[in-house]
Specification:
Blueprint: H1 2-20, H2 27-30, H3 37-54, H4 60-63, H5 68-91, H6 107-126, H7 129-157, H8 161-189
Helix pairs in contact: 1-6, 1-7, 3-5, 3-7, 5-8, 7-8
Length: 191
């Protein structure tokens, strides 16, 4: 039961993140060009929080039955997220160090995310088969888009070449995953 509740919390958090923060295609044009170290660190913390939750997405199969195609895609997302989180842990120690735990979200945003998380947990517990898969693919579509755009936006303001290269790779990886999720959503669930 402990694994189930943790998984549901993770899935709900992913739903929150994916549904709340999709950036427009031109987001990097509008991104600020100068931020202080704390603000840049917060961008990394948001990315770290997202991939830390996404790395557990493949655990869905412990409590729910999904198609082999979705299971494979979720495993790929999970593996990519694990590698990204691990690399972020390493990059956080480069001078100046990053605080990957502090995002300073407004309290009202935190409350909204918690509310969505609870509602999403209920939906996941009640859904199965096509409805479950559609909900998962939809949330992953938005989550992969958010991860790519977040990495892209932080890369605009990052001056450290090693971190900038990481962010550009991360943007590409999650953009590719977004394309794979979109293809699955389009081909499997259109009517």
């Amino acid at each position: 039961m402990k694994h189930s509740s943790g998984l549901l919390m993770t899935l709900a958090a992913m739903w929150v993140l994916s549904g709340c923060a999709i950036l427009e295609p031109g987001a990097t044009k509008d991104a600020p060009t100068r931020l202080n170290a704390a603000e840049i660190s917060e961008g990394y913390a948001l990315l770290y929080d997202l991939v830390s939750k996404q790395k557990q997405v493949s655990l869905l199969s412990i409590i729910k039955k999904e198609s082999p195609e979705l299971k494979s895609l979720l495993e790929h997302i999970s593996d990519t997220s694990k590698a990204t989180a691990k690399e972020l842990d390493t990059l956080a120690r480069i001078d100046p160090p990053l605080n990957l735990k502090v995002t300073h979200l407004p309290r009202i945003e935190q409350a909204a995310r918690e509310s969505i998380e609870k509602e999403t947990s209920k939906q996941i517990l009640r859904s199965k088969d096509v409805e479950l898969e559609f909900n998962m693919v939809s949330s992953q579509l938005a989550g992969m888009n958010y991860a790519a755009h977040l990495a892209r936006s932080v890369a605009v303001v990052e001056s450290n070449p090693q971190r900038k290269a990481f962010l550009q790779r991360t943007d590409r990886k999650f953009s590719e995953l977004h394309g794979q999720v979109y293809k699955m959503l389009f081909t499997r669930y259109q009517r």
